[in-house]
Design a protein that fits this description.
The protein has 142 residues and is mostly beta strands. Helix content is 6%, strand content 35%. It has one domain (18-140).
Length: 142
């Protein structure tokens, strides 16, 4: 089931998150990575959770993973979501990252309540909001 998302308020980029949103607007998924120990982390933070280094950069990742958890929302959390009716909110665990698992909160397109399941292999796609902000969303892997 594919439904175009209604226009939601855009996220407010910070000095730590702007690169993530900008890359998504360009159709790329990047995750913050510690320059010292190599650990990936999301949400972006100033210091590494593993070695406390303040040195980091954006690392492109493949955008493949699996559904770690999900729920179907029957009550919109924002008025702009009301036209959707029931929609899913999913936690996707990314493959190919170093350190603790990297998990993104998003949604999965092209699924129904019968087909969305924990462990479902997914791949990223993007919904561009403007030149500076894109949203990584997921669909079942093809």
């Amino acid at each position: 089931m594919t439904r175009r998302r209604p226009q939601l308020p855009a996220p407010t980029p910070t000095i730590l998150s702007a690169g993530f949103w900008k890359a998504a607007a360009e159709g790329r998924l990047v995750i913050q990575r510690c320059d010292e120990c190599g650990a990936h982390r999301h949400v972006p933070t100033a210091a590494c959770y593993r070695c406390q280094s303040l040195a980091w950069s954006w690392d492109p990742v493949a955008g493949r993973g699996h559904v770690f958890s999900y729920t179907w929302s029957h009550h919109p959390v924002h008025p702009a979501l009301a036209p959707l009716g029931v929609y899913n909110v999913a936690v996707v665990e990314l493959e190919g990252t170093e350190g603790d698992p990297v998990r993104l909160v998003s949604w999965v397109e092209e699924v129904t309540p019968e087909t969305l399941r924990i462990g479902l292999p997914v791949e990223v796609m993007f919904e561009r909001i403007d030149d500076e902000i894109g949203l990584p969303i997921f669909r079942p892997s093809r």
